[in-house]
Design a protein that fits this description.
Number of strands: 11
Strand content: 25-35%
Radius of gyration: 16 Å
CATH topology: Multidrug-efflux Transporter 1 Regulator Bmrr, Chain A
Strand order of the largest sheet: 1-2-9-11-10-5-6-3-8
Number of domains: 1
Shape: globular
Order of helices and strands: EEEHEEEEEEHEE
Helix content: 10-25%
CATH class: Alpha Beta
Protein name: Heme-binding protein
Distance between the termini: 35 Å
CATH superfamily: Regulatory factor, effector binding domain
Organism: Psychrobacter glaciei
Structural class: alpha+beta
Largest sheet: 9 strands, antiparallel
Length: 187
């Protein structure tokens, strides 16, 4: 069964690197603590609970929301959504996000019952992306982030956001078949 992914346009491509323009999106997000692995598990559970029915539909009752890919996470501070987020962890907090299916608007998306889940509208954005397979341990993600930063610098691109880790596959997918990305917004 195919899982919906956010719409984007590839501006340019070179080996494992791409420049992409993403359309606006609705996302459900939560802030969690712990190391990268623990935060990923905690955040996924909170957001999965929301999409699997711990919500209130606009017409009453609850509604199951289809899973989409990727699941995104980034180190974060709990600050205003319009401010940039620093890459360095503060108090071990991570922002974990699910992109909502494109059929929803802010008015039609069920509302989370859990106050730890926040729904936000993300405007159209442009990203530099590096694609890779395998596991997403901290060391590998750090290496891929540095590769992406170096590539973006060689293209004279100015980052305007912090790195985001995007994972597209289930935990039981064989590592060599996994699709992962590090993404950095730029102008």
């Amino acid at each position: 069964m195919a899982v919906e992914e956010p719409d984007y346009t590839v501006i340019s491509q070179s080996e494992d690197f791409e420049l992409r323009r993403y359309d606006p999106q609705l996302v459900a997000q939560t802030l969690v603590t712990g190391d990268q692995k623990d935060a990923s598990n905690k955040g996924f559970k909170v957001l999965a609970d929301f999409i699997f029915g711990n919500n209130t539909a606009p017409t009453g009752g609850s509604g199951k929301i289809s899973m989409t890919a990727p699941v995104k996470m980034q180190p974060s501070q709990e600050i205003a959504m319009t401010a940039p987020v620093n890459m360095q962890q503060t108090d071990g907090k991570w922002r974990v996000r699910f992109v909502m299916p494109s059929q929803y608007t802010m008015q039609t998306l069920p509302k989370p019952n859990n106050p730890e889940v926040e729904i936000i509208e993300v405007p159209a954005q442009t990203y530099g992306v590096i694609k890779f397979s395998g596991f997403t341990g901290s060391s590998k993600v750090d290496d891929k982030t540095e590769e992406l930063r170096t590539w973006m610098q060689s293209k004279n691109l100015t980052p305007t956001g912090d790195p985001e880790l995007a994972r597209y596959d289930t935990p039981w997918t064989l590592p060599f078949l996994r699709r992962n990305e590090v993404m950095i917004r730029y102008q």
